[in-house]
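Subject — a protein and its fold
Fields — amino acid sequence, structure tokens
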Amino acid sequence: MNAINQTISEIAGDFESVKKHAGKLIGEILKKQWEFEDIIIDGITVKPDFKRLGNLETLITFILDGFSDDEILSMFALPSHYFVTGQGSAKAPTAEEAAEKAKKKIEKLKAMAFENA
């Protein structure tokens, strides 16, 4: 085997290794995301939301760019924000802030309904 073929073979092997590692990381990311449950604050359900990973190629790019597993996990396995749906819909960096925003919206809607009644 000449040097060029050997180098190509090594690169292909390295890429398969990175691809396999990326697949394992996706599993870890999903497992960690499932550990986060909805939170109920003062009767308001607040849900965690996460940055979208996209696809396997995106994760491979992060790995090849030198991001550590911990950095990748912190980017995609931890909530990027929390949200409330329904009449008091809200989005905020923390569950408490999202619940507070939702409460204020609900209070405003109730006040408007009372004024119009």
The beta strands are 39-41, 44-49, 81-84, 90-92. Residues 3-116 form one domain. The radius of gyration is 22 Å.
